[in-house]
Amino acid sequence: MDVILPQILNGLDKGSAYALIALGLTLIFGTLGVVNFAHGALFMIGAFCSVSLSRILNLSYVTEDPTQTDFLGKPLKVETPYLEAWFGPEFGGALIDWSVPLAILFSIPIMILVGLVMERGLIKHFYKRPHADQILVTFGLAIILQELVRGIYGANPIQTPAPDMFRGSIDFGAMLGFDPNVIIYPYWRMIYFFFSAVVIGGVFAFLQFTTFGMVVRAGMADRETVGLLGINIDRRFTIMFAIAAVVAGWAGVMYAPINAPNYHMGMDFLVLSFVVVVVGGMGSLPGAVAAGFLLGILESFASMTAVKEILDGIDQIIIYLVAIIILLTRPRGLMGKKGVMED
């Protein structure tokens, strides 16, 4: 168990990111019928929301401290964050320290705006076009957004630390009754998993138990009939696009302390997330989530040293091998529905 449990935890960590991105992809495909290759860019923009808020909160001014001098006897110049000057070192410092969790709120209007502009400005013109056209235009949009981010923030990864109290690791094994210091796991990765579970549960609850969600699910099943009832289903689907953008953004916001944001991180996750969507079944929300965690765990076990000694490089291709096997035996994926992507 001291070998298996850490791999399961690593798999849940990776699977959380796959599941959140795949969930948003499936929401967009299930409602609008669009294969959105720009969805990974939304994940990247979310991560850079964390970077941006951290920089904003760390804005400071320079003063001279006469109590400290350099080797020439001149007063040292000290940078003081504006927040600490306005609210005091304790509260102001806490706001700076908690920049990543605060970025969850900061990212909401940004991701909604980006999602609405993306959907209303470009993607709506491709609803009735072939999926190949949708892939080409959204992939081009993803490249444009990626290059814009590189132009603004640079090409190098930007470290975005978690709050001080969540840095370091927890003795997870001791909590379960194992010997101390046997199963050590980073705090923030566990928080990321629980955060993902809450977001995924919230999306499913929203679709299942709210009137808005019920109408959306009905529109996903039979768009024309819902429209004949006098419901503006297109407007609701546009709102769902914005919600999917927020979900992808949140995935990126909370992932920033795990993997320093860089301009190509969206593309890195996009391909794997599309594999997750296809394995789970196009248009199936439960399938996307289940496949995300399943493939995350398999990838984690494949990255073990003992496994790579037997099959070198297996960790790089395991997800694609599993996808091939599943699609050969179940062409619609684990939970795919008849008629989806079969025309």
TrEMBL record:
Its main location: membrane. The lineage of its organism: Bacteria, Pseudomonadati, Pseudomonadota, Alphaproteobacteria, Rhodobacterales. It comes from Marimonas arenosa. GO terms for biological process: amino acid transport. The keyword Lyase does not apply. GO terms for molecular function: transmembrane transporter activity. It is a multi-pass membrane protein. One of its GO terms (cellular component) is plasma membrane. This is Branched-chain amino acid ABC transporter permease. Keywords: Amino-acid transport, Cell membrane, Membrane, Transmembrane, Transmembrane helix, Transport. The chain crosses the membrane at residues 15-35, 42-62, 98-123, 135-153, 190-216, 237-258, 270-298, 310-328. It is found in: Cell membrane. It holds the Pfam family BPD_transp_2. Belongs to the binding-protein-dependent transport system permease family. LivHM subfamily.
